[in-house]
Design a protein that fits this description.
The protein has no helices and 10 strands. By secondary structure, the protein is mainly beta. 26% of the residues are buried. A 4-stranded antiparallel β-sheet has the order 4-5-6-7, with no helix packed on it. A 3-stranded antiparallel β-sheet has the order 1-2-3, with no helix packed on it. A 3-stranded antiparallel β-sheet has the order 8-9-10, with no helix packed on it. The protein has one domain.
Length: 124
């Protein structure tokens, strides 16, 4: 079982928890630097690790879409931010594809306009 979202020192962090089939705690990891990071979804990858989709922001700065790839123990292998600049952008879902890449879906809001986006990313 995995989950996301936690509070740490007044900034929200992504909190990934793994339990066994009986709900017994195995490990936990938190992700995010200065500012807030929120997770919207998590999926297990073919190597036993996890891909987390969400967003990050600092006070008075726009949301930026974020994906984080971990190993099987939750240690971060890499992360990627998408869509800086004007507007808010959130990654709602990320899933590994058959060719080892990732398909990422989200939403970008610029002023009063909202757009859905889909990206194919090969990670790292």
């Amino acid at each position: 079982m995995v989950g996301v979202d936690s509070y740490s020192n007044a900034d929200e962090k992504i909190w990934l928890v793994k339990t066994d089939e009986n709900g017994e705690f195995l490990w936990e990891q938190k992700y995010g630097g200065m500012g807030t990071a929120r997770g919207e979804s998590v999926q297990q990858t073919s190597d036993g690790g996890y891909i987390i989709a969400g967003f990050t922001y600092k006070k008075f700065i726009r949301y930026k879409a974020l994906i984080i790839k971990t190993d099987e123990n939750g240690a971060q292998e890499w992360s990627k931010i998408f869509f800086g600049g004007i507007g808010n952008c959130i990654a709602f879902s990320a899933q590994q594809t058959a060719d080892g890449g990732y398909i990422i879906g989200g939403e970008r809001n610029v002023f009063l306009n909202s757009n859905i986006w889909l990206i194919k990313y090969y990670g790292g």
